[in-house]
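Minutes, project huddle
Topic: does the predicted pose make sense with S-adenosyl-L-homocysteine bound?
PN asked that the exact inputs be recorded in the minutes so nobody has to dig through chat later. Recorded below.
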Amino acid sequence: MTLKLKTSDIKEIAGDQLATWLKDQGLEPYRAVQILKWVYLHQADTFEEMTDLGKELRKLLSHHFTINRLETAQVETSQDGSRKYLFRLEDGKYVESVLIPEKDHYTLCISSQVGCALECRFCLTAKGGFVRNLSKGEIIAQVRDIANHLDDTMRLTNIVLMGMGEPLANYQNVVEAVKTITDSDAGLGFSSRRITISTAGLVPRLADLGRELTVNLAISLNATDNKTRSMLMPINRKYPVETLMDACAQYPLLPRRRITFEYVLIKGINDSRQDAERLAGLLRPIRAKINLIPFNTYQGCEFERPQESVINDFKEILTQKNYTVIIRHSKGQDISAACGQLSGKYDA
Ligand code: SAH
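Predicted holo structure (tokens), as shared on screen:
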């Protein structure tokens, strides 16, 4: 078999593909797991380090594959401890990831695309338009490389696909990357219970996702009526609120799990009592929890964050109706690392 790859980065290859390739070379296919353990568990940078492989095999691997790292162009640290990584990709494009310290662990927010095509009106990433999908290896590398940077005793346990891009618009690469990130044998071994994929609501892909992965699902709802939602998120014209809610109601959830509904609170747009009540009604048929995200501003944005009292009232209405509600005060605002503030550019 000849592997047709744009890049020779070993992270682009699935374990069974590597096993087949080895077999075709007349070598033992089980070596694939051994090799990938070096790459993911031991964070190897070269095939030379893989001391339990024969010299010949190491040479052969070096000849055919590389073990790529992302080039870190800039790291900024917020007053609250969160860190924003700007990575320069092989083709010179930039992408960002944000490492967020929680009480006793880290959460890492990773990107799935360079830019985004969805044109959500309130999101800074959208302003730069869509550039390209990240490859499977580039998605995995954000996790692998940042985990490798960490020398803290605090562990990286949670991963959210809430950075730049729409994960379900880069479906295959995202699914393949998540499979490697959660593979405890020949991957990074993260628990799929601690991985969350956030989507603006690409309805046809939701059913596929539910079949293929058991990660957590977050839906960026942001409005409860079609007029407002289509204004904020043009994707709503294709998959309106009712269609999205139907897909969510049918989403196969594991016992005791719920879908997270993200709701960016924007002053005068979607923050009224009626909005809160409509939201409560809309989510009734679904096992849901709600994350309220007060709008994060950026230079030149046309929207504002509601007053604190409005945010709290909105939460209270939902709590009264028995929903679990969290107000997500995004970290890293001083370094433009908060939700919707990622641009993939140098902040001079
Ligand atoms: N495309 C995916 C992944 C991006 S997640 C999605 O839409 O879910 C980014 C989250 O940040 C989304 O919930 C989005 O609604 C929210 N967001 C975008 N811009 C924001 C802003 N300026 N302030 C607060 N939240 C924002």
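Observations noted during the meeting:
- The longest strand covers residues 94-101.
- The pocket of S-adenosyl-L-homocysteine is lined by residues 122-123, 162, 166, 198-200, 220, 222, 262, 264, 293, 295-296, 339-340 (CB under 6 Å).
No decisions taken; revisit at the next huddle.
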